[in-house]
Amino acid sequence: MTSIKKVVLAYSGGLDTSAIIPYLKEQYDCEVVAFVADVGQGADELEGVEEKALASGASSCHVVDLKDEFVADYINPILKTGALYEGTYLLGTAMARPIIAKAQVELALQVGADAVSHGCTGKGNDQVRFESTYAALAPQLKVIAPWRDWTMKSRTDLLNYLASKNIPTTASAEKIYSRDANCWHISHEGGELEDPACEPTEQVWTWSVSPEQAPDKAEYVTLAFEAGVLTQVNGEAMTPYNALVLLNELGAKNGVGRIDIVENRLVGMKSRGCYETPGGTIVNAALRGLETLVLDKSAFKFREQVGLEFSHVLYDGRWFTPVSKALLAAATSLAEPLTGEITVKLYKGQAVVVKRSSPNSLYSEAFSTFEEDEVYNQKHAEGFIRLFSLSSRISALHKEQN
Fold it and tell me: Does residue 197 contact residue 283 with C-beta atoms inside 8 Å?
């Protein structure tokens, strides 16, 4: 077996990673350093996490605050691309993995570790996202993925393993859902969701109210952007992270941001998941609304192409690649004129853009009005159409001649 002296584990405090700490020590006779990324999953998720790690056998536990960096350097650039995986998913899990894995690598190099480890299943996307980042930033580090190595196959197996090691855990066999949370979203898998024909019960959702239980009165929120970056909410200047926190509150209480999808995983299988992205849904709707006002037809089409391609780049764990860098640069360039204010109406699960204004607006009432105008000569359209359709005309004439 490969000789490993010190390993840094991406640790959440959940059942899987709690079992991985003693497993690593047992299999490799090594020191295990726990790494916890605070990406805005909430105080409840982080409460007692250091004590849990030490009780499981870690030599130390490092909780690293990544919230501001996550929103400013990952979420905001991704928003500019307009990426939606398979047309629906706002990529909340995928967008957090690069910053988490990067910070894990940085800690591993800092403490002199010779390996990194994660608790990702061999069936999922996250193993690819973590390990692609490791490869891009520190290929010399060995990678240990216990779910691909150990003989344990179920939650019960893990609970029994921890019991055999006399390691306390708050996990139980009754916790049927697998969840991942950060300041952008919460994902839910497992339980009744494993049957695509089964409607999710309300116990699946943990963040937002159902649209049916949302207030009967609409709520309006105004977002101000500068070069595609959210800077104000309802006229108040805010940091990117604080703005997202506020929008999460507004969206959640109005039932905004729930989706239920069956998606194509990178490893080839389909999976069913429910996602809650209340604030993100509002920001995305607002920024897309601003684009319609500012970008011309060719620029908007190209941004759509960038978003489609980047959704797969991000989902597939290719953040630290040349193509990712190029697509993000293109999106940043396209977002340069995206300055303005957008008002979004929140009502029973919907976030609808109702007001738009921008100093860079290409909308001209003088040209688009249905009333009489003095700026547009409709006769000019005839020549335009003849030239625009010229290839079709030539093709039809050619067929007549033959």
Answer: no
| DSSP per-residue codes, 370-387 | SS--SS--TTHHHHHHHH
Choose, from 12, 18, 117, 126, the residue flagged as catalytic.
126
Neighbours of 267 (CB within 10 A): 13
Choosing from 18, 132, 178, 187, which is the catalytic residue?
A: 178
Spacing of C-alpha 336 from chain mean position: 22
Which one of 16, 18, 56, 318 is the catalytic residue? 16
Looking at the predicted structure, is the pLDDT value of residue 273 above 70?
Answer: yes
CA distances from 311 to 81, 121, 308 (A): 9, 22, 5
For residues 402 and 392, what is the distance between their CA atoms, to the nearest angstrom? 16
Give the helix, strand, coil percentages of the chain, each rounded to 5: 45, 20, 35
Annotated catalytic residue 157: no
Measure the CA–CA gap between 15 and 31, rounded to whole angstroms. 20
Q: How far apart are CA 252 and CA 361, in angstroms?
A: 31
222 Rama sector, left if φ>0, alpha if ψ -120 to 50, beta otherwise: beta
- Triad 345, 312, 257: Cα angle to 5°: 20
d(CA 13, CA 170): 10
Where does the pLDDT of residue 352 fall: very low under 50, low under 70, confident under 90, or very high at 90 and above? very high
State the DSSP string of 273-333. EEEE-HHHHHHHHHHHHHHHHHS-HHHHHHHHHHHHHHHHHHHTT-TTSHHHHHHHHHHHH
Q: Does residue 247 contact residue 287 with C-beta atoms inside 8 Å?
A: no
- Which helix (H) or strand (E) segment is 244 a member of? helix 240-253
Q: What is the pLDDT of residue 213?
A: 98
**pTM (2 d.p.):** 0.93
38, 56, 97, 318: the catalytic one is: 97
Coil, helix or strand at residue 184: coil
Would residue 29 show up in a list of annotated catalytic residues for this protein?
no
Separation CA 151–CA 173 (nearest Å): 18
For the stretch 287-346, pLDDT in tens is 999 999 999 999 999 999 999 999 999 999 999 999 999 999 999 999 999 999 999 999
Q: Which one-letter DSSP state was computed for residue 339?
A: -
126 among known catalytic residues: yes
